[in-house]
Amino acid sequence: MSSRGGTGKRRWLCVFVIAAMFGLFAAEVWAEGEEGASVAFHGYFESNMVMRDQNGIQYGFMDHLNGVQQRNTLKFDVTAKTGLNWGNFAVEKLQLTYRGAYDSIFDFRANKYGDIRENIGASRFDYGLKDVRFENDLREAFIDFTYMGPGGTGFFRPGRQLVSWGESSPNATILDVICPKDQSYQLFFQNPDDVAIPLWMARVNYSPPAIAGKVKLNFDLLWVPDIRPSQFGPLDSVALNPAVGMEAPYVSILPFAGMRGLNVRQDVPTNKQEYGAKVTADMGLLSVSAAYYRDVNNDPAVVLTDFITIPGVGMFPTKALFTHPSQDVYGAYFSYQVSPLDLVLRGEIAQHSAQPVSVAAPELKTLAPLSLATYRLKPVTLYQLAIDKNIYVRWITTHEPVGFSLEWIHQRINSWESVFNHPEAAKAGSPVRDMDIIGLTMSWSWFEGRVAPLIAAAYNPGRSGAGGGSGYIHPVVSWQISPHLYSSLGLHAFLGDKTAKSGFAGLVGTSEATIKMGYEW
Question: Do the Cβ atoms of 191 and 73 come closer than 8 Å?
């Protein structure tokens, strides 16, 4: 195990060394007068305020508000074009991306999120409470070696980087399992690059000459020695007291919120490696990809250990071990532009060979063993089918069409066990064998594109015969005040039957309003 909280000084040193390397390299390039050499610097500063309705809008619209985030973020990119060429080969560019952040909610609401000290420590694999309050992260640092000649085009990219495979969906992770997600400080529906955790890896991408001048192939190869899990808010106990958890705004609504207050540890197989390959064929209006990835699960499989006996009550665990087993992920996706109808049809399918599926533990009602796995490793298949279409809706906007995206997602647990049907497991929220999500997104613009509304919504009907469904609605309006200054106002609201066995039911009591101001250059 390692502690991200104890690596701050090394990170600053790493940022300094790489920045100095960029500066010296650029100075050397300019000194030699290399043609095409340049350095670009761009980024943004953003302040984000989030107010949470503690009981959800369907029980009174924003009537129990509390501040849960006041995050101030600085992010910038430095791109150095080298101008170094040797025939068909080149050192194309050096890339550095930095992000730093400070969430002042821990100071504004010290009575709620107080006792925030570095020495409370990070007993998690890579995350402590300090990292939720502050961020100092070198997100990307890579170099591109390129080839462009009669044999096609390609690049070799070693370094820390973000890679995404598959069709983008806010409602499910289907094939995009490469970079884990950071769920420690915000809800869903963010920019995918902002919530993805960059990894150190080597990437090789190659496109041979087009076949018959029409079919274009592309091959993508990855080798990832940097094994990291998804990140959640700190759940650990304080001073080894399992009754007191380290508080943070997004702990209570995380998938593993029930582990809060336990001694949380993570067993991450850092000695293993991830690797994968993808091939894409572009044939005019149709693009098809097939991929394989050897994956260490980003989300954990939880084992409860170190049980204690409370007289007259029962046995309860004091420690939760988060394990991350390996699996094979196979999948494919496509995109087809249907010209006569002016729409895009896209789809995706993936099979995860050993996905942790949470299962309640009815045996806790009788006699708990010394350790108890709260999961089963199951093959899971996920499907996605979506239609994108621009339609003129005159009462919304007259100068351009409204963009509509309709999405259907289906998840199936391929291997079923009787333990999933146990009455106690059903009460506690055991999984649904077949789950569907229907999503709809609408987007358009006003005032020559300066104001851009967007509405996203999704619904999950849940388990048959076990209550109603649940879903969410996410309206947001972005305003480009000037070429550099921007703002947005958004709402995340979950609605439905919060006692139902459906995908969004656990979040029905949560609604958040977000106000954002930023300056970009």
Answer: no
Do 329 and 353 meet the contact criterion of CB atoms below 8 Å apart? yes
Element at 171 (helix H, strand E): none
No. of H helices and E strands in the chain? 5, 24
The residues with which 385 forms a beta bridge, in sequence order, are: 347, 408
Q: Which of 301, 21, 454 is nearest to 29 (CA)?
A: 21
> pLDDT value at position 497?
82
Q: Is 8 helix (H, G, I), strand (E, B) or coil?
A: helix
pLDDT digits (tens, 9 = 90+) for 452-494: 999 999 999 876 555 678 899 999 999 999 999 999 999 999 9
Spatial contact of 47 and 81, defined as CB atoms under 8 Å apart: no
Domain that holds residue 371: 4-520
DSSP state, 364?
Answer: G
Rounded Cα–Cα distance for residues 344 and 404 (Å): 11
Report how far apart, in Å, the C-alpha atoms of 94 and of each of 97, 99, 134, 326 are. Answer: 10, 17, 27, 33
Which residues make beta-bridge pairs with 377? Answer: 356
Q: How many domains does the chain have?
A: 1
Name the maximum alpha-carbon separation found in the chain: 81
What CATH number has the domain bearing residue 357?
2.40.160.10
Residue 220, both tokens: 């993508």
pTM of the model: 0.87
Distance separating alpha carbons of residues 162 and 96, to the nearest angstrom: 12
